[in-house]
Amino acid sequence: MKAYKYKLKTNAKFVAGCLATLDVCRELYNAALQERRDAYQINGLSINYHAQAVQLPQLKQVREDVGEVHSQVLQDTLRRVDKAFDAFFRRCQNGETPGYPRFKAASRYDPFTYPQSGFRLEGDKLHLSKIGSCRVRLSRLIEGTIKTCTIKREVDGWYVVFAVEENQCRFFPKTGEKVGVDVGIENFATLSTGETVENPQFLRESEASLKTAQRRISRRTNKRSNRRRKAVKLLQKEHQKV
Question: For residue 123, what is the enclosing H or E element?
C-alpha cells in the first residue's frame, strides 16, 4: 500500500459540500462516542461498530443532512470511533496512559474518507458522490489501484489522499556493493564507510519564527477575535512548513 497526496483546485460549491460533510461526520463521531460512554456508565453495556452502523438508515429518515452524506463516509466515521476505543483498550492492557477518546471540536476534525466507492478520478478531475467535482494538482502519476479516497482540510487549503495498492514491487538494480547504516541523534546517519549525513534540524532552525508566532497569539487575549484567528493560522503554517 502507498499513499499519494495532492492539493485540490477547489471551487465554492465543492468547499461548501466538504464543509457540510465534515460537520455531519463530526456530529456523528461525537454522538457515537456519547452513546458508547452512556451505555457503559448507565447500563454497563459495551457497544460495537455494528450496533451503531445499523442505526444509520433510521437516522437518515429523521435527519436530512445525514442523508445527504454518502453512506460509506458515515460508516467510516463510525469505524474511526471504533478504532479510537480499540486503541484505548489496548493501552489499558499494556499498562500505558490510556487517554479516553475525546469529543472533536470543529477545529479538530478535518478529514473524511470514501473507503471503497463514491469517488472517481478521471484524468485530473475528481468526482465525489453527493459533493461535486474539482481539479487535482497531479504532481506525479498514480501507479497501482486506488483503494480509498480521503479528503483533508489543512491550513492552506484542501487535499486528497489516495491509498493505492501497487500491482507489482519495484527494486533497485543490484550493484554487488554493501554498506551499513547507523541512524543516530548527533548525525542523521553514519555509514560503514565513515561518511556521515548531517541532521537537517528543521525544527531547530524554525524555533525563532515559531516563538514569534506563538507570542503573537498570546497577545491576542480575545479568543473569538479575527486577529487571534489570523495569528493561529500563521502559527499553523509555520508548523506545516517544519
Answer: none
Quick one: 126 and 219 in the same domain?
no
In a domain, 192, yes or no: no
Write out the DSSP string of 67-111: HTS-HHHHHHHHHHHHHHHHHHHHHHHTTS------PPPGGG--E
What burial letters (b/e) apply to 40-72, b meaning 16+ CB within 10 Å? eeeeeeebebeebbeebeeebeeeeebbebbbb
- Exposed, middle or buried, 129 (CB in 10 Å: 0-12/13-18/19+)? middle
Question: What distance in Å separates the CA atoms of residue 136 and residue 167, rounded to the nearest whole number?
Answer: 23
Cell numbers of 67, please? 442523508
Query: What is the per-residue pLDDT for 186?
Result: 84
Check whether residue 212 and residue 125 sit in a common domain.
no
Q: H/E element holding 28?
A: helix 12-43
pLDDT of residue 170: 67
- The three three-digit cell numbers of residue 204, written as one number: 531547530
Residue ranges making up the domain that contains 131: 2-165
Q: Provide the whole-model pTM.
A: 0.81
The count of domains in the chain is: 2
Mark whether 229 and 156 lie in a shared domain: no
In a domain, 143, yes or no: yes
Select from 163, 126, 162, 164 the least CA-distant residue to 143: 164
* Residue ranges of the chain whose pLDDT lies below 50: none
Domain end, chosen from 139, 165, 191, is at 165
Q: What is the pLDDT of residue 53?
A: 95
One domain for residues 152 and 53: yes
